[in-house]
Amino acid sequence: MKLKSIKNICSVPLVFPGFFHLLESFIGRKFGGFICCWHNLSAERFQNHVEALHPAEPIPLEELVNRFRSGKSTKGCYALTFDDGIGSTVRDISKKCINKGWPVTFYVPTGYLDGEVLPYQKIEFINKYLPVDEYDIPDFSKNFVNKIANKKEIIKTLTDLLYFENFTVVKKTLDYFINLLGKEKKTLFNKEFPRPISWNEIEDLSKNTAISFQSHSVTHSALSGLSEKEIEYEMIKSKEMIESHTNRKVHSFCYPYGEKKSIGEIAPRIAAKHFSSAVTLLRGRLEKNNPFYLPRIGLYSEDTSSFVRLKAVLG
Fold first, then answer.
1. Closest CA relative to residue 14, chosen from 283, 297, 305
2. What's the domain count of the chain?
3. Long-range contacts of 10-18 (CB under 8 A, 24+ apart)
4. Which domain holds residue 41?
5. Beta strands 297-298 and 34-38: pairing type?
6. 27 pLDDT above the threshold of 70
7. What is the DSSP letter of 117?
8. For labelling alongside 154, which of 48, 55, 249, 265 has CA 20 to 30 A away?
């Protein structure tokens, strides 16, 4: 039986809100609050997820982190966060949160807002349009096992690259395969991806204190593949850009890809110089965690209310 099927079965008792309330009260007292993370889903589905976690209360991320860092209880509290800054998502979720009085944080990669296509979006494009065939691998790419690879091998290797390789290598490699698609397909390149939220919209939304924009780097690159100087640039430049458009302090950083191998050893130390917190995609609750290596609970459109509760309970 697949792990997800087992988890779905385990979540059945959590269909009943009262059972979740009892578990959450006990676990929250022992392990503290938590941070939820979404990327892209409808406002209706988002509302279902948040309401499923009642009576736990969404509070501003900065307040939650301050409570945690000062040793105050975070029991019964959690923060709402979204990654990547996809325009339709930010608009719809902001409207819902303002209407409901729910504070929400959006982590945005500033290069995406300035017109760059995110690396994982490039891979989606290559996967969609690259014909099934075998291809010569360029000499500059040292990450492929063989000099010739089929489409499946190429997509897997490109995806793996995102989690550890320097952004210049990633860009050069992705652009090589995009160039193989020909002019006709390349004309679709900037048309097929979801557009980011605009800086003008960020300026307008930031007037509402319930909406917060925080740093998700400039290039959305795995920091483990960057030098200390490059990491500093990703953090400082993105922070300054967002602050210049929001006229509000940027206090938190979100590591691109969020896994241990993507974060590396240096990034948390640098984040501590420029931010009050930094978040990962590692699962867990706040208790006894490094404020610059905070876990989050990833939630997705397909998650039912009971499965959302199970994720919160398990951390």
1. 305
2. 2
3. 10/310, 11/304, 11/306, 11/307, 11/309, 11/310, 12/306, 14/306, 14/307, 14/309, 14/310, 14/313, 15/305, 15/306, 17/54
4. 3-113+204-314
5. parallel
6. no
7. P
8. 265
Query: What span, in angstroms and rounded, lies between the C-alpha atoms of 119 and 171?
Result: 7
Confidence at residue 253, expressed as pLDDT on a 0 to 100 scale: 98
The residue out of 129, 155, 186 marking a domain boundary is 186
In a domain, 208, yes or no: yes
Amino acid identity of residue 60, one-letter, is P
Q: Are residues 98 and 171 in the same domain?
A: no
Contact status, residue 186 vs residue 201, Cβ threshold 8 Å: no
Q: Which of 188, 37, 211 is nearest to 117 (CA)?
A: 188
Q: 108 with 123, same domain?
A: no
pLDDT digits (tens, 9 = 90+) for 31-43: 789 999 999 999 9
- pTM of the predicted model as reported, rounded to 2 decimal places: 0.93
Instruction: Report the distance separating Cα 158 and Cα 173, nearest Å.
Output: 8
Rounded Cα distance between 195 and 112, Å, is 9
Instruction: Say if residue 17 is in the same domain as residue 157.
Output: no
